[in-house]
Amino acid sequence: MSHLYHPLSTLGRFDILWIMKTAVKNTILVILGLTAGIFAALTIVLLAFLHNTALLIFDVKTLFAYNSYHAPYAFIIAAGCIFIFIFVFVCILYGRFQILIALCAAAASVFTFTICAMDQQVIVEDYDWDGDALIAHALGGINDDAYTCSYEAFDQAYANGFTTYEVDLSLTSDERLVLAHDWPTWCTDSKGLNNTAYEPTHDEFMSTKIKGLYSPMDFEGLIRLMIEHPEIYIVTDTKSSDPEITAEQFNYIIDTIVKYGSRDLLDRFIIQVYNPETFEAVDTIHQFENYILTLYLCWNGNLTELYSLMSWASTNEITDVTMWYYLYNDDVRALAEKYGMDVYLHTENDAELAAEFYANGVRGLYTDFLTPAGWQMGRTTI
User: Fold this and answer.
1) How many Cα atoms sit within 13 Å of 350 on the Cβ side?
2) Residues 19, 22, 25, 28: what is their CA dihedral angle, to the nearest 10 degrees?
3) CA-to-CA distance for 181 and 168, rounded, in angstroms?
4) What is the pLDDT of residues 104-141, one digit of tens each?
């Protein structure tokens, strides 16, 4: 009896196995291809719209330690890169170069579409601080306590409607930047010590409650607040007219912001400079959008000196000046108007005096206890 070909013959079984293996292999390639294509598109779009975010995937410690709001996007970018790598590897392994070429073409198309769609858009939001009637001094007062620069002070000031906050910045003994007015005051208020030369380490500062009540903050914590609250602005008070110390502080500031992958934060800082030397030290490191000529370290009321300082500030396009409230008078106002400078005064907590200052040409006040909710420009309902 002759043998007829049957699908279940040995040859037929091999054909079925080959077809099944090929189908499984191609199915895997299709799934990987679709996944890689989706992640490639997401990666390109995210890199285009959130270009600073990409930095986070190279800094795992920062990403996990600080729970940045960029983290979900960074994970997508990282996953996209991993899937693309796997798919390219599988394509090369199985010789599916035509699929690889198709994926590259699709990615190029998505990239081109994204760039075209963004042609009329601003990639990084343009932050433009135009001043505030009230600035929360040292993040605002709390429970009749000033100068705390604490999380609790910020929370209260934020709830009261502040959008601009002044912060005091100091370096610890291990050269970390924290929010503290000065170390002698910190030693007295937080440690009960009378030691004018003592400087804590970062860990000691962060583990010690301010006045036994309030949570301390370092510069990294401040950056996290700025990320969580994109509408707020920060006025820096670095406390030194020494350009070398100023340079050290601002190198730290820039490095930390870059580490967080959020360069747009730079435009939300208003930098207090105390003399031409500190301005040059800062401006050499980064040309910030906003500066305030700050006079408490370098001016004691002499009008000739003020004329020179305002002339220099005007030449360098600095349009804001701040000084002690008790040094402001008609002559100062006239000089400020001559050079087109807005005047800010510190620190004022009396509502009636504040109203008088506004009526006499002052643009804004640093305050511990007045609140924006009680103010309109030029008058108070407190």
Assistant:
1) 6
2) -60
3) 5
4) 655 555 554 444 444 333 334 556 788 889 999 999 99
